[in-house]
Amino acid sequence: MKTMFLNRCDDETHKVVIKGEIDEETISQLDIFLETTCIDHKIELIFENVYIVPREMVEWLKKLFATKKYPIIKVDVTQERLYSYLHSLGIKVNIFCDKEGYSDIKVIALGGSAGSTSMFQKMLSCIVSTDVSVFLVQHASYEGESLLPSVLQRFTSLEVISPKHLQKVEKAKVYVAPPNYHMKVENGHIVLDQSARVNYSRPSVSVLYKSIAQEYGPHAVCITSCGYGHDGSDVVEDVLSKGTYIIAQEPLECEARLMPSSISQSGKISHILSVDVICELLRILNDSSFVNKELLFFRLLKKIYGYDFTHYNLQSLKRLLNIEIQRCTKENENGFYHSVILNKDRFEKLLFALTVNVTEFFRKPHSFKGLNRFIQQEQSVSPHLKFWVAGCASGEEAYSLGMMLHEDELLENSLIYATDINEMMVQIARNGLYSVEHLATNRLNAQAVLQNKPFDENIQLEDTFFSIKEEIRRKILFFHHNLATDSSFNEFNFILCKNVLIYFDDELQNQVFQLFYDSLSLGGYLQLGTSETLLFEFRDRFKVVDIESRIFQKVV
Questions:
Q1: Is the residue at 128 inside a domain?
Q2: Which of 201, 276, 283, 419 has the smallest number of Cβ neighbours within 10 A?
Q3: What pTM did the predictor assign?
Q4: CA separation (Å) from 473 to 22, 29, 526?
Q5: Are the CB atoms for 264 and 226 separated by under 8 Å?
Q6: Which residues form the domain of 195?
Q7: From the first residue on, what is the mean pLDDT of each consecutive set of 10 residues in the chain (556 residues)?
Q8: What is the model's pLDDT at position 354?
């Protein structure tokens, strides 16, 4: 099984590490393993870099604790989001604290061979900080003094030099390895030597990268540009194990592609980026003086991770971003930016914070009652109804809609699609498990909408959480969808998108309204949040049918 391996610590304790995708096979093999191996042993389950688990795993953990079949059971997680989710459901878990911190970049190492000079020129032109040191290795087929430092000096305000042996490393300098000498860093000094060639090269990119990682750890980033050969690819694991980041230039940009291709084929490096994106990345890594640093930051998130925040309401984004920075690292804002851009795990944590997930069952009950009137009208002419809940967060609104349709005996002939940009929230919604902490509020809200089948008839109540009954869950399809970049995927009678558009600027709102218009059947209905309304440009394509409940009908 790919998601589990055993680490036997001693004769009494077993550690089972669970990582990657978790499915029913994972749970089945866990059962077999515990039954055959751990019946008389202490057990520690570790969820490593797992952000969310499926419903079956939550139920399995609950049963495991309840039966007390094994002497001692301990569950550890490494991700805060999973800890919060399981803890809210009453599952006793511990969390390994992230001791790495958010490290700003102090050193940039550049490596390349044939065709890399022009790329290095572009990269160096984006490095302006006096707080970083730059090390550069380019394969050379000659001896004697190199002209490369003078060639590169025209493209940067930093001093470009060919270093001397045991020269002390200083900030605001670019150190170019001299021909026929390996260059590495030891104890704050540059070491030059003519030891054996590495990967047929002297100077060697591998030698530089390995020493940089040893010396600077997570404060360094290594960037491989164009060139022939495999230099640099053999030290990827060593470099990454020290927390140092590795980036490869997009090989298709290079005539000599082998060098960036070989280092990227490990599948473990931080990113594969075009030289233009690398330049933007270098600007934010080394220049803290930007007036609109957040704009560059969000633009890079789009280019690197594919999540487009550039048209979200900037003030709302800044507020959420600053809250997360203060929560994670009060004294190192630059380190926060650097870590999020370079580390996908860190980005996933920020994504969770930036995509607003505040919701509850039957929130604003009057809006559901208003919607129900039009559902009754529509079902008389269209017996099979399709709904889209856009921006569903953790699923409460979609399940509330399902409960309302169930009471009206319309659920069987209906299908609800519920989507969100945040894949972790989609999985939480798909699980259909919720803390009993807000159960009283859920019941009260539902009471204003459901007359014949109260809230408790739609759920299965446990001691610390409740689950949505299967007859409702099976009629709701949850999946990932990005309103900013993804297209229409069906034709719907009703679209519900509440309290999402307030985080978008006018340009993105215009795009989303067009998406909704294209996704609605003729005469279909759109419901917005109570503080949202149509853009002026769409007032001839939708008519207001219930302003209090923010319901609009599509017209030709």
A1: yes
A2: 276
A3: 0.69
A4: 20, 26, 23
A5: no
A6: 107-276
A7: 52 77 86 73 83 92 81 81 87 69 88 95 92 94 81 95 96 95 96 95 96 96 96 95 95 95 87 94 80 82 84 79 78 83 85 71 95 94 95 95 97 96 92 92 95 94 93 97 92 95 88 96 95 91 96 92
A8: 79
DSSP letters of 506-524?
HHHHHHHHHHHHHHEEEEE
Give the C-alpha separation, 175 to 244, whole Å: 19
Q: What is the DSSP string of 22-48?
A: --HHHHHHHHHHHHHH-TTSEEEEEE-
**Is the domain of 514 the same as that of 377?**
yes
For residue 367, list its beta bridge partners: none
Q: Is 115 found in the same domain as 78? A: no
Q: What's the pLDDT at 9? A: 53
In a domain, 496, yes or no: yes
The pLDDT of residue 1 is 42
Same domain, 452 and 516: yes
Q: 413, 473 in Cβ contact below 8 A? A: no
> Which of 321, 338, 355 finishes a domain?
338
Would residue 492 count as lying in a domain?
yes
Instruction: Assess whether 454 and 410 both reside in one domain.
Output: yes
d(CA 110, CA 243): 17
Q: Within 10 Å of residue 359's Cβ, how many Cβ atoms?
A: 19
Look at residue 544 and tell me if it is in a domain: yes
Whose CA is closest to 17, among 100, 58, 76?
Answer: 76
439: DSSP letter: H
